[in-house]
Amino acid sequence: MNLTVTLLLDSQRNMRKGVIADYSHGRNKEDSINKTMEKINRVLPKNAKVLDFEVGTYTTPVTRRTYAVVVVVYNAPLEKKPFNEYTIRERRELLAGVLKTFDYNPRVLNISEIARMFGVSRDSIYYDIEQILKEKKSER
Fold first, then answer.
1. What digits encode the pLDDT tens for the residues 27-83?
2. How many other C-beta atoms are found inside a 10 Å radius of the C-beta of residue 106?
3. How far apart are CA 121 and CA 111, in angstroms?
4. Which of 67, 131, 37 is nearest to 93 (CA)?
5. Backbone phi, then psi, for 99, in 5-degree steps?
6. What is the distance between the alpha carbons of residues 23 and 13, in angstroms, rounded to a whole number?
7. How far apart are CA 104 and CA 44, in angstroms?
8. Is the per-residue pLDDT at 88 higher than 70?
9. What are phi and psi of 90, to 5 degrees?
10. Can you tell me the distance from the alpha carbon of 49 to that of 20, in angstroms, rounded to the nearest whole number?
């Protein structure tokens, strides 16, 4: 039995992407598929959206044992965490996205409110914005 998997990942979607492959043997095709699907469902992340799957079975000639192989491709939502648990890098990525939306105009931001949300000082937010704008200039 041959298996080829080709994936096209969309990096623009903010989701956890994954592939799970597993196999089991059973008394017959149905039994081996059910066992394999139970194993896959145990490790599939909560709220995952299955994008594609493939099921294959084969029976060995000598032992007459039937195997099932299942491959699942999924997207799962990222786990949300409170703003005050963000790392500096995550905070800057979020701020960079907001600034990009507003054409890199920091005047549209309420610095005090953002600092309160992240549990940092206003100076930290000003420094983050300064670094984001420097990075933007160096890209040009």
1. 899 999 999 999 999 999 888 888 888 899 999 888 889 999 999 988 888 777 888
2. 16
3. 9
4. 131
5. -60, -40
6. 30
7. 39
8. yes
9. -65, -40
10. 13
